[in-house]
Amino acid sequence: MASSEPILKVDEVKKWFPVRSGLFSFGKPSRYVKAVDNVSFEIKKGASLAIAGESGCGKTTLARTILRLIEPSGGAAYYKGENIFEMNRLQLSELRLQMQLIFQNPFEVLDPRHTVLDLVGEGLNIHRIEESDEVLHDRVISALEDVRLIPAEDFATRYTHELSGGQLQRIAIARSLILKPDLIIADEPVSMLDASIRTEVMNLMTDLQKEKDLTYIFITHDLAQARYVGDYLIIMYLGRIAEMGPMEDVIHKPQHPYTKALVSNIPIPDPTVKRERIMLPGETPTPIDLPPGCRFKPRCQEFGPQCREEEPQLQEVAPGHFVACWID
Amino acid sequence: MATHDPVLQVEDLATYYYLGDRELKAVDGVSFSIDAKRTLGLAGESGCGKTTTAYSLMRILAENGKITRGSINLGGIELTTLSEEEMRKLRWKKASIVFQYAMNAFNPVLRIGRQIVEVIREKGDYSKEEAVNIVSELFDEVGLKPERQTDYPHEFSGGMLQRAIIAQALACDPQLIIADEPVTALDVIVQNKILDLLRKLQEKYNLAVLFITHDLSVVAENCHDVGIMYAGNLVEVGNVEAVFKRSLHPYSYKLIGAFPSVVGPKKRLEFIPGTPPNLMNLPKGCRFHPRCPFATAKCATDVPEFREIHDGHFAKCHYAGELDLGGGA
Prior knowledge:
The complex is a heterodimer.
Chain A: E1 8-18, E2 32-43, E3 48-52, H1 59-66, E4 74-79, E5 82-83, H2 89-98, E6 99-102, H3 106-109, H4 116-126, H5 133-146, H6 152-156, H7 165-177, E7 183-187, H8 195-212, E8 215-220, H9 223-229, E9 232-237, E10 240-246, H10 247-252, H11 257-265, H12 306-309, E11 315-318, E12 321-323
Helix pairs in contact in A: 4-5, 4-7, 5-7, 7-8
Chain B: E1 8-19, E2 22-34, E3 39-43, H1 50-58, E4 65-74, E5 77-78, H2 84-90, E6 95-98, H3 102-105, H4 112-123, H5 128-141, H6 158-170, E7 176-180, H7 188-205, E8 208-213, H8 216-222, E9 225-230, E10 233-239, H9 240-245, H10 250-257, H11 297-301, E11 306-310, E12 313-316
Helix pairs in contact in B: 4-5, 5-6, 6-7
């Protein structure tokens, strides 16, 4: 029983941002940007889940809501059976030791006035994990070795301006690892990096996952990256899950018209591969005042009468593969 | 090959930046040419000199940047020796540039149409009405409603702004368009729409396009030829299929191999250990030799020549054509 229990279970999570209204909208009903709208999924320990979608689809808001960096508007998220949304400050602080977030831009995350030793050890200090200076130093060194910054003693004394982008992102990863987390949420962790360094960091993350038995949620706009690091994929569109399932299933047999279009538009680094691209009219709108029915309908090429009336729910089409679409 | 003249011919171009008394060799000996209706993708990692190459062509370098040697021939005109004033007259008319951040390219407090009208009237002898009509035609051409020219930039989405910028780039009927990461900030579907549009316009107006990007997947799908840059050098040039499938330079081969794909079997990719060199303190010999798995003693001392190995396929490596690199895939 215990082994099949998901490490994280997200249940109908909502995050609605009120739209700031003008002076004359007094008395009118409030409007909301439904950035995350009834999202449910779960992730097993040791799995690697990729959440993908275009800008504005709510993938980052979802991650922040789960970590309660922003307050949810509804739903529940259970970490090892405990509802994160009902935790008090103390419990949240405990939780954040186990659930770590890695950001996109390491240049902004790391304070240039601190040495690598201070930056990597910062989390231990913040969480008041009682350690002597020597033990702290040793833990930092071993975290740096984990992310292959060798010789670690040398890197520990450096400042951020002495390091490259790839090295900085590895320091950001070391900062998380030192707290011995179970779950790492990485929000576009390699998007700022050059191709070769990007691959180096993604390989490192994959290796660390095996070594440390980590669970990953990897947020990205790039399906090629998602496929490289993830074994399970969620495609979001305007705050909702359009499709989710085992990675290769979703990439090779996409069912939702949006996923089909998205996959067909990912550029392939091989000039001899020719594919049919599915083009969608228009651009992704903002999720304010969505029309009734399916939110993808205005751009969908395949829609039928039912799409106008009711929002489609996720249906299982193959083992573990879910699609929110009325069209079969 | 040389039955006609290419639109753009760059020969041994070198551009250095000066920081105090120190010299930063951002572009050092780059040669390539582009014909009408052809797109050359210039790719490489950050700091390899691809944007400096573009800025050199347009002569819009920062104050401390100087073209120190080489020639740039655009439609029969040598650009490196023109005066600032002569160059100013040529920009937009002979060559225009499309920048990465569409949202920053227009003045936010002026209507978009007016800003394009300004360019047209500055460069040609048109009345205001004529210029407005040209803008209407251009908008129609790039898939924007002509009545939207009275909108302000914030009323446009990212894709629409990029279209407006392309309209502006076409306004004075140039022969060459330099597109510096034109779609990097856009989502993939919109990205492909813009790229399709560029291709259509290229065909219609006989444009030569220099396409600058860090993303080799985009190059593979959208360019006829590709040039790979490393530490200020152009290390390989050729048509995309040759460069991707029969790479001659170890760097191109490794870089192409570092890109994940959504097709084909999922496999572990290799990366290139180490980082590109400091441009103020370049290694002797081949600039790639400290990171090259095939490097020999010769590579550490002798600078390799940039030479044609197969028809139209050039590389800057002592062992180009002899190394067994297989293919990029």
